[in-house]
Amino acid sequence: MKNAKTFAKFALVLTAALSSAAYAQNPKSTFTVVRNDPWGAQNFNPFLPNSQHLLPTNSAIYESLFFVNSLNGKVTPVLGTKYAWSKDNKTLTVTTRSGVKWTDNQAFNADDVAFTFNYMKKYPVLDLAGVWKNGLTSAKAANANTVVFTFDKANTPTFQFLAQQPIVPQHLWASVTDPGTYTNAKPIGTGPFVTDTYSQQALRVLKNPNYWLKGQPYVDAVVWLSTSSNDAALFKLIKGDADYGYVGISDPIAFAKQNKNTEYWWPTNNGNFLYFNTTKAPFSDAGFRRAVSSAINTKEVAQKAYAGAVPASAPSAIIPAQQDKWLSASDKNMGGKYNPAAADAALTAAGYKKNAQGVRLGKDGKPLPSYRILVGAGWTDFITMAQVVGDNLKQLGINTSIDQQAWAGYSGSMQSATYDMGISWGWGNGPTPYYLFYQSFAPELSAAAGKIAPSNLSRYTNPDITKALQTFRSTSDLATQKKAVAVMVSAVMKDAPWVPLTDRTQFNLYNTSRFTGFPTAANPYNDASPDDSIGARLMYLNVKPK
């Protein structure tokens, strides 16, 4: 009875926005996703960034070769069934799935895969991950079920970008000559759902009756509802008018406890960091940075910023789901001890003494100036973090102020190294620690102060790390890669170009009154990625009506 009443609510909402013909198929089970912001025009182009195409595009309509779980690196076959690197790691061979059809009933095969990647080479604006800039030289179909990728240099981490590229049908896209602006209003994919109805308030896809994975999905339709705010989205979840939402809130623990049938899963997939601008003194001094890092109480930072829902980061910066695989016991216990007394003594020993008034002096004997901690304007969690950091550093005789900037100023200052200290996330994460350390410390991603750096925000480089990054990407041997990660972790913890403050999580909220099978900590079959990502496809496949 409750299921019927809930569906009636959806029908009223949708009927107001969509034509009555939309319900011709009358789906028996509808999984509803709530959004706390609107979406754009009717665009289903899978080559465009997520913000430029509609939500089901890569989560329900188009499919990739594999899904790579960013939490633990687990690879789930999709249109690819297996893959193998050659001994020199310059050739990747992928076996594609047999018996798959596009939703126009044409057969899918390896030619579609090769076409997709060569199409990105022909139109570089589509190559969002830069696979053709990272060593890929050819993508060819050896036969109907085999694709061979060839590289001019070994770069095994590129696998995740190849694996997760949505594949398009050659027989349709070969004639599209304006892919950067093409809206693809009638998408033809291999995915578990097909397009149905669209408006600015509600969007629906229906189950693909000929989907290659027999028996799935278990639901007949997925509906997205647009709301104007987090509070409005939460209200729909609490009422049971929505089953799932990717919504960041201040206290998910209280949300789950106070509201019937509500749960959350916020797994860590990144970190929040206090970055030091190593292009300017005293942050150019590793001794200064090390001392300051030990004066920051990251547990207090996490508690005050996230009310206990998100913990302090590991000193290594490696996320919890990857620590057992990539860290030795000694690395797990290395560094990161909060000890303000030791920090004070270390600063003095490094040449930064205090005067009689307790003011910290530079090596020239002059009082250190007040330093700005850059955060995004209105970002309450980062503002709280900056307040705690400022209080901690004041105990050392170092004064700070909080510098709130709108996004353009914030990102511009971080990327041009015009800040003193700044709080931000890791500008690069993925299924292994390589992605974080590469994006954060690779020389090619740095730049001179005042110039824009893609992601090396601290402007820190280290020849040992650079060599370890090269070692990692030149091999597919796990033992060799683990040794390379150990070198990176050791160097970064010694030189402290940043302070890992708190874990950074995904934001899955559920109302479980109507469906089971959600991804959770006990069953993390996807990485809790947002509702418009390729990882969400696994949730839409696995949720079941009660």
Automatic annotation (TrEMBL):
GO BP terms: dipeptide transport
Gene3D superfamilies: Dipeptide-binding Protein, Domain 1, Dipeptide-binding Protein, Domain 3, Periplasmic binding protein-like II
Signal peptide: 1-24
SUPFAM superfamilies: Periplasmic binding protein-like II
Ranges where the Solute-binding protein family domain occurs: 74-442
Source organism of this protein record: Deinococcus detaillensis
The entry's keywords: Signal
Stored InterPro entries: Peptide/Ni-bd, SBP_5, SBP_5_dom
Protein name per its UniProtKB record: ABC transporter substrate-binding protein
